[in-house]
Every structure is written in C-alpha cells, then in structure tokens.
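Rotation project, supervised by the postdoc (A.L.). Task for the rotation student: set up a whole-complex structure prediction and record inputs and outputs verbatim in this book. Inputs entered:
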Amino acid sequence: SQTIHQWPATLVQPVGSPLSLECTVEGTSNPNLYWYRQAAGRGLQLLFYSVGIGQISSEVPQNLSASRPQDRQFILSSKKLLLSDSGFYLCAWSAPDRLYGYTFGSGTRLTVV
Amino acid sequence: QKEVEQDPGPLSVPEGAIVSLNCTYSNSAFQYFMWYRQYSRKGPELLMYTYSSGNKEDGRFTAQVDKSSKYISLFIRDSQPSDSATYLCAMSSTYGNNRLAFGKGNQVVVIP
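Outputs recorded:
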C-alpha cells in the first residue's frame, strides 16, 4: 500500500532563517506531488506541484521554493523565512491518472518567530 | 467569484443529530466531487467521492451532487462526537492537470 511521510511535525524558526521540509511517498511510482499551506480561515492554498523529477510548477509567487530530486521525494525550502510564512504545510500525492483526490501527509506546523 | 464556495462558519450539533454541509461552485467542467475530513492538527483524509451528479451513501455519510445547480452536499446521520472535525469539499475536472479546487472547510462540533 502507498504511504506518505512528512516531517517534521512541528517547527519553530526565527525570522530570516532557512527552511527545509521533506516529503516522501512509498509504494507508488511517478506520483504527482503537491505542497499546500493551510492558514486559519483561508483554506488550502496550493504552493507547488510536480508531475515528475525536476518538474516544478509554482502557484503563488513568494520566498518559498520546491524541488523534486527523486521520483518520490518532494522538498519545500526557503532561504529566509518571513513571519507571514507561518502556517500548516501539507504535502500530498496522487496517481497521475486519478482525478478523485489526493492523499495528504500529516502536515508540518511552522511557526516563524 | 471563487471557484468553490463553502461557508466556513462553525457548526455545533447535539450527538445523534443530522449534520448538513454544502458547497457551491462555478466551474461547470468539474466532474469529480470529494469530501475530506480533517481532524485538528492532522492532514485531510478522503471521506467520499462521487462522479457527476447523483447520490452516494457510505454508512452514516451521504454525498449528493446537483450539477444543474452547481451544488454539492454532505449529510452525516446519527452524528457522533468522533465526527467533530473540519470538512472540506473539493472538486476536479479532466482538465487542469489533476488539480483539485478546495472549499475553505466547515468546522463541525458534535456535542455529547
């Protein structure tokens, strides 16, 4: 069966520090991968998605970036965090031909102080 | 107009009551309609999905889609305290690279 791992679960970082969140998927190949941010009252905001290694599409211009160095690994990064980067970050995957939903990771609660 | 509208207002109901949630949407190309359940500090999990119009039942949960009105609903019968969570609607079409459009989510509290 397929599983998705996301870590860390919680993170407190000072303003201006770098960020690296990692997500890996097991039990499938060539998944579509997604990074979302969820802020209170704002719902899920798609940040990046990837349909293959090295293929990254950005939805929202910001100081975050994403990379997909391996087929089942998706990394969210920032060189310098802002206070506004605080939020709940979720990684998700879907099969390329599956139109009825994603499977989400357990999320990372990021607080920038 | 946003693609998907979901009133995020919290909903409190007594245990055993019927919970009714709904979303409206503007994109007539949507064909797949999903409901996710999200417990506090957890990732969303797929609860149900339907294709095109009609009803789908799974235990105490019923999903309805009315494409003519661009309106979807989720009903929870005999609600339990364990149903307390945020419920998000989501939808997709065969276009748009398998991307989902989400509602903002509806927080439900079932009071014992």
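Student's summary: Chain A has no helices and eleven strands.
Supervisor addendum: The first strand of chain A starts at residue 3 and ends at 7.
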